Amino acid sequence: MRREKQFKKNYAVTEIIGGILLVAVAVVAFSAIYFYLYPPPPDTDILASIEGSVTMQGDIVLEHVAGDPLTNYRVIVKYPNGSLIGTKDVEEEWRFGEKIYPLEDITSIKLIDETTMLSLSVYSIDRDNEMDLVFEGTLQGHAKTTLPPTEDTILISSLRTDTTDEDLLCFNYSIEALINPLTNIYSWIVDNNSITDLLYSFDTNSFDLAKDYSSNNLHGDVYGPTWTADGKVGGGYIFDGDDDYISIPYCFQGDYIGTITIETWIKTSSESGCIARYDKDKYWDLSIKNGKIQWSTTIDGNTVELNSVSDVNDDKWHLVAVNYDYSTGFAGIYIDGLLDSNELVHNPGSILGDATNPNGHIGLGFDVSSSGTIFSTSFESQSEVDKWSENDYRTTAYYYWDEYIFEILPSDSITPRTGSYSIGGSGDCDPRYAAYDREGIDISNYNDVKVSVWYSYKNTEYYDELGFYYWDGDDWVPIFEDFTPEIGEGNQLDWTYAEAEIPDSIDNLILEFWWSTSHAREYVAIDDLEITGTSILSVSNFSGLIDEFKIYNRILSDEQIYQNYLCSKNGFSDISVIVSDETSVGQYWKCNITPNDSIQDDNIFVSNILKIKDYGGG
Question: For residues 199 and 212, what is the distance between their CA atoms, to the nearest angstrom?
């Protein structure tokens, strides 16, 4: 009995083991079949190790130090505050041991010292466009003492090969000054021309003279502001907001301004104040309004104001830069090296000024009690004509029947009062009329507004008519009317003056030219339109500190403005940098350095000359 019982137990165990083996075989077989039919996806995680460093010339370098190659990756560059500078996607194999310059094709900013930093991220991109972070860090430049120039050399390019892809660095290390300098003043010269029209460092303690270091010798006259050794870089001037200002000569290279960049350090707690201006009604004005930067540019009497987003009246130093580019019509505002506002303010091709060449002022606001020009035009440009449009309600003529025109009229149509053109109409529309209105002109900030205009007609008959009007909110009020302009074939009326006072209740001034002529050879016209008034929203004198005031005769790149901020934000002046975006093949660059001890200048030290070459690649 025992033997039989033991046999049954062994048989049962064998059965269980056999069953387990069959299940295991089935699982293995199924797994093999499933793996064959449905192989697992490949492992797409990229395992790579990247290290970052900064060269002595301020270039960021990334090195692949371990792991898999990267074949598709994205580089993201930001300022330390998180503002994006730019990105790029790269589809090239980056293998172990290889180094790259990640800022290429994104920015030319250099990390010139230990205070300059950029944040950098690198992501690998897989076939599904999923991204994995492989590098992230904030890199900073080396201490200044570790930037040795070559022996007896003041000016070098960042890679010492003088190509368009390199920055230009001007040092003061090899200068043997005769004084004990506190600051160094850098004036850059390209092809024997200064890049600045005006360069005031304010480093010399003077109660009457602001010296110009641009090589143009356009020194300013100081009226009231107090010199201080506590400027942003060396000395500066304190303006009391009452009657302090600096008068500056007209510094531009012609009667009109096409491209301009203005840059200065300011420190103020005031809500408003004029930083600098050259007759706002005709050229430009840089002010603070409601704590923000206001950059005003004027063309043909039309002033457009661009305001910053950021406030600057926090009683801290801020580098303010503004520009205008006539080729695009855009103006920009930069605060502490970063673009704050950028807008189209005028038609492309429009240049600032009116050939009056006024003196400018630093710190001087607008006198509320004086009358000035709000708007003026001699109708010399198509941009002014484009601001007039037909009043469909007041026009009774039929264009296709009467063939009337309203446009700038050359001298072979009707002789203008001034310049080459007037504006007006013609056509065979009698007894019907045509009317064109100008877009509104903001006069809300003015009282005692007056409109003056000159008018004439040629070849007109007794039944012709013309008039010039403003809209008072209810009706068209005449500035002049002539219902019997008979002058006869071949004759033209001498230009006749007309004016009208505009009620203070009108904020938006709309003007209208209205006429009826009976032949296409008959012309009616106006010329030299001017609107004057007394400002009721004056800009006060500047209250606070101003330092390092510069007017450039070019549009500085975003990178250059940021580099200027980096070079001066800590008050140092032992290096000046021109970024590669500012240079072109074949140019000759040099830099003049003037050491200053706050009492006097040393001799001017002229750097070696660098000729910019084409970058050969590689």
Answer: 5
